[in-house]
Amino acid sequence: MDSFALVIFGITSNLAQIKLIPALYDMEEKGLLPFGTTIIGLARRKMTDEDLQKYVGSVLRMKNIHHKHPIKDEIFQRLCRRFKYISGEIEDASVYTSLKRKIIEKNVIFYLATYPELYSYVFEHLKKSGLNKKSGGWIRLMIEKPIGHDLKSARELNELLLKYFTEDQIYRLDHYLGKETLQNILTFRFANDIFEPLINKEFIDHIQITASENFGIGKRGGYYDQVGALKDVGQNHQLQMLAFATMDAPAKFSSEEVAKERIKILKSLQPDPDRIVFGQYEGYKKEESVDPDSRTETFYALKTSIKNGRFENIPVYIRAGKKLNQTVTEISIVFKNPVTRPFKHLECGDEPNILIYRIQPNEGIVLKILTKIPGFENKLQAEYMQYCYRIDPHNHYIPDPYERLLVDAIRGDHTFFNDAEEVEAQWAFIDPLADARGKPHLYEPGSWGPKEADKLIGDDGRCWLEPSMAFCRI
Ligand code: BG6
């Protein structure tokens, strides 16, 4: 890989602290940062290059649930030598004069880890200083979700982006696409031929997607209260999970073909504003930087369906929330249970088979099946056939999604990034649902959300599956 300059707008942001700097450390450790690569951080705070290096050290050593391994001094020193700092207001032209002086590499990635309100200033200044184009090298832009806050603003932002960059320079990042557990869904489905014939309306009863977290919003109240659960994780992560689990096989495994199939699914989703429930955990209004009268949801549950021949009329139930009973993210494909099954009369003989893509924790791909309890009686039990990442005999390294996506952007691979059309398709589904928001139902922290969410699925004679911790345990 060629060396490059990585310019991070907002090096002191929460995102840079929790995700980017640790990912860069991991890349340094694995030799994924080519010789001569520099990292230029920009922020308002007055700091020297040495101060920035100390700051990077403190960030790496702070408690981080996403990055638990020890920091080796030698790697840290090597990484530190790459960092340079520019302090100033992003709106200020002099920042870009300094930036131009500091960038000596042919190739550049601009990473926006800053407020969306500042994007237009960044783009305009990059253009004025001639930093958005380069001959003899490449210029790329990484931009985080959320892209806009509804379809209209997403379109505006996409149009704005195209005034300054070409589509192939833009990497719209949803970190779920960088998750190994999500990417493996495609391999599981399309590298094995035995499951695909079952993934359709003939065999599937319904699909459930859960993204629950047992913690609250922490110090992110200022952001979260403006956004809410539906737009924070529903518009992006969860729709992508659904797309990976239900898209058709791409004609070939290329960036264009994979995106094309994801987009087809996103465009065929049917929003139903009458089948969505919003919840808010008790105590949310007292969280730091949250409006004491806030109506922002910290939970939602919805029912939707995919309008295509393959999944017509198969219900899809999606739920996500904070301060719930467990932290778990998974997709469950619940199969039909034919009336002719000859074991129906036995205890648990009526249970459906379920294919579970467990994104986290106890990561794996698991098939819930019925087996005979060994012995003289004809008794059944539900068991799991499992592929588990944590019990990988080869001990393969699982890259963090940010590490993975940074490497992809360096390589110029768009497969696991969203293009404008995809982001807009996501918003077209979410907008009518967001408009249906009313006063959210309160729920108790540690529960599975408001009882109205149980009714949502219960009205169809179904219930939410309690995520199991019985498989893929270490
Ligand atoms: C982020 C959301 O995009 O994803 C957070 O803003 C959420 O609210 C997080 O907690 C979940 O990501 P992960 O990788 O921890 O499942």
How would you summarize this macromolecular structure in one to three sentences?
Helix content is 33%, strand content 21%. It is an alpha/beta fold and 474 residues long.
What does this 3D model show about the protein?
- This protein has 474 residues and is of the alpha/beta class.
- It has 2 domains: 5-144, NAD(P)-binding Rossmann-like Domain (Rossmann fold), CATH 3.40.50; 177-458, Dihydrodipicolinate Reductase, domain 2 (2-Layer Sandwich).
- It contains 12 helices and 16 strands.
- The chain has helices spanning 14-29, 49-61, 73-80, 93-102, 119-128, 151-164, 180-191, 221-246, 255-268, 401-411, 420-434, 451-458; strands spanning 5-9, 38-43, 83-87, 108-112, 139-144, 170-173, 204-212, 269-270, 276-281, 299-306, 316-321, 328-335, 354-360, 364-372, 380-388, 441-443.
- Helix 8 packs across helix 11 (420-434) and helix 9 runs parallel beside helix 11 (420-434).
- The longest helix is centred in the middle third of the chain and has 26 residues, at 221-246.
- The protein starts with a strand and ends in a 16-residue tail after the last helix.
- The relative contact order is 0.14.
- The chain binds 6-O-phosphono-beta-D-glucopyranose.
- 6-O-phosphono-beta-D-glucopyranose (BG6) is lined by residues 213, 232-233, 329.
